[in-house]
Amino acid sequence: MDRTSAAERALREAAPHEIFDVLRSLIEDRFRARAVELLMADYAMTKLQPVGVLPHTLRPLPVHESAPGRAFGAQEPHCVYDAPASTVTVHLPVSVRGDRLGVLSVTLPINGDTVGTSVVGELQLFADALAHEVVVAERDTDVFLQARRAERLTLAAEMQWQLLPGRSCARPEYSLGAQLEPAYAIFGDSFDWSASADDLYLTVSNGMGEGIDAALLTNLAVNALRNARRAGLSLSDQAYLADQAVHGQYGGAKYLATLLLRFYLPTGEVEVIDAGSPRMWRLRAGAVETVELEAQNPLGMFDDTVYVPQRLALEPGDRLFFISDGVYDALSPGGEKYSLRALTKSITSTRLLPASQVPRAMLQELLGHRGSGPAADDSLVMCLDWYGRPVGTLV
Predict the structure, then answer these.
(1) Which residues in 225-278 belong to E strands, given as ranges?
(2) What's the rounded Cα separation, in Å, for the pair 303 and 243?
């Protein structure tokens, strides 16, 4: 059994709250490491929070303008040498299937000027193994979820973050990322996704109401959609059953504006249902355009609504945006609405960033317009890059 396989087995056998301690011991023994640290990305994706026993943890580091943040942003190992101490600190991304969780930082003694690529490669395998185990461990321990908090979450935000599938994911056919603001006090905006061999389902929702009421409404709708999707129903039937669930609970007094999409991965054909949805934009060949959709009733507004999907076709290189009204209706301190021109500029200015980083960057630009005061509404941005299925791919 090689060292990586032995490490994976040791992590699987460890108690959930001890997996990082086990990994740290393995790295210290294997590489004679002087320090091993795990930093988790916080909910706002602006800080890297050290994992430790609360409240006795180290200070968080900014995602931007820090060495670990460089590894996190580029999703590549980054080495920092300290010649006087004869050490090198290797910062390694901790990610699983495109979902960026944090950074593993390992300080090693060195005799020469560099650390070998084989060592960095082996350390990255350790970081990858840790990422998979963190995702599993979060079902049974709060250690890693607590480490993600730069401040306390509201109860509504707690409910919303637990509802989400992740904040980014990637496959050969596509890459996507999403972010919610205000991260620690989100109300009802939400997103969801699920992929199979040939299909990717996305939902993006504009929440209605505030606080717990908004979170409860969104939780009901998202779980109703998941229930229908997991029963193998069509996109139309998924919308219909979720509509019935929400209307049955609230009688039309509350409803949820939702955009439902099914991507057929082999061809790039898309089914879309615009149920009073967030807006959809497309960046194609450098040109930004809104995608005009056939507006239908929000989920739960009326009883027995029949939803009809429309069809679109994607081209390799397309970038799609799904944006809630908390973005394009945001007001400056002087009452000026965030214009479509400003939104188009934001889409264009982030065109070189990977999809996983685009939502955070766009929301940061929005904050510059809105100011630092309390947000009047949730803001959601999702970005999807479509590559198309590689020729000869087997699934």
Answers:
(1) 257-264, 269-275
(2) 8
Q: Which of 240, 236, 243, 242 is closest to 261 using CA atoms?
A: 236
Contact 63, 76 (CB under 8 A): no
Mean pLDDT, range 89-109, rounded to an integer: 96
**Torsion sign, CA atoms 130, 135, 138, 143:** positive
Give a yes or no: residue 141 inside a domain: yes
Query: Could you give the CA distance from residue 329 to residue 80 in angstroms, rounded to a whole number?
Result: 43
Greatest C-alpha distance within the chain: 73
User: 366 and 323: one domain?
Assistant: yes
Alpha-carbon distance of 196 to 187, in angstroms, equals 30
Contact 289, 281 (CB under 8 A): yes
User: pTM here?
Assistant: 0.91
Q: Per residue in 216-240, is it b (16+ CB within 10 Å) or e — as a string?
A: bbbbbbbebbbebbeeeeebeebbb
Residue 116 falls inside a structural domain: yes
Q: Which of 130, 148, 166 is the last residue of a domain?
A: 148
> Per residue in 256-312, pLDDT tens?
999 999 999 999 999 999 999 888 999 999 999 999 999 999 999 999 899 999 999
The total domain count for the chain is 2
Q: How many helices (H) and strands (E) does the chain have?
A: 11, 18
List Cα–Cα distances, 383 to 176, 184, 193, 268, 282, in angstroms.
6, 21, 12, 16, 10
